[in-house]
Design a protein that fits this description.
Blueprint: E1 7-11, E2 17-21, E3 26-29, H1 44-66, E4 70-82, E5 90-102, H2 106-120, H3 122-127, E6 132-141
Helix pairs in contact: 1-2
Length: 142
C-alpha cells in the first residue's frame, strides 16, 4: 500500500515560504533577488537539486558503510543547466560525488553510485525521464 504524505506550505511574506510535514519538520524557500525575493533560503529549483543529491547520498553512504569503506568526508557538487524560457526546467544535471578516506575502493564507490541512481533514489527515479542526469566521482586520500 503506498504511503500518503501530507505537507503544508505557509507564506512568510514577500516571496518566502515554509513547508512543514506532519512531524512539524520544515524547509524554507525564497526567490532569487532578480525575481523579487531576498535570497534568505534556497529557491524551489535549488531545493530540487539538493533533494536529488540528498536522496542519492543517503543510499550511497548506506551502501559504502555496508561495504565497510572507511570514509571520513563526503560531499556532492551539483551543476545544472536550465532553459531560458518558461517553464525554466532543468535540461541537464550533473552530480560529482567526492569521497575522502583510507583505502577507498573505486569499485565500491562505482557500485554504490550505480545502485543509488538506478535502483534506490526516489527523487532521481522521478526526474530521470524529464532531465538528463549524469554523475562522476573523485576519491581523495586522507
Amino acid at each position: 500500500m503506498p504511503s500518503v504524505k501530507k505537507m503544508v506550505l505557509y507564506w512568510q511574506g514577500k516571496y518566502r515560504f515554509m513547508a512543514k510535514n506532519e512531524k512539524r519538520l520544515s524547509v524554507n524557500f525564497d526567490a532569487p533577488i532578480p525575481n523579487g525575493g531576498e535570497e534568505t533560503a534556497l529557491s524551489p529549483m535549488e531545493n530540487v537539486l539538493a533533494s536529488l543529491a540528498a536522496c542519492s547520498s543517503y543510499h550511497v553512504v548506506t551502501i559504502l558503510k555496508k561495504k565497510r569503506q572507511d570514509f571520513s568526508d563526503y560531499a556532492v557538487e551539483m551543476t545544472a543547466d536550465r532553459r531560458d524560457e518558461p517553464p525554466r526546467v532543468f535540461t541537464s544535471i550533473h552530480l560529482k560525488y567526492i569521497i575522502k578516506g583510507k583505502n577507498i575502493s573505486k569499485e565500491a564507490v562505482e557500485s554504490a553510485i550505480r545502485l543509488s541512481e538506478e535502483k534506490y533514489c526516489s527523487v532521481g527515479g522521478m526526474l530521470k525521464n524529464a532531465v538528463k542526469i549524469t554523475s562522476s566521482y573523485e576519491i581523495t586520500k586522507e
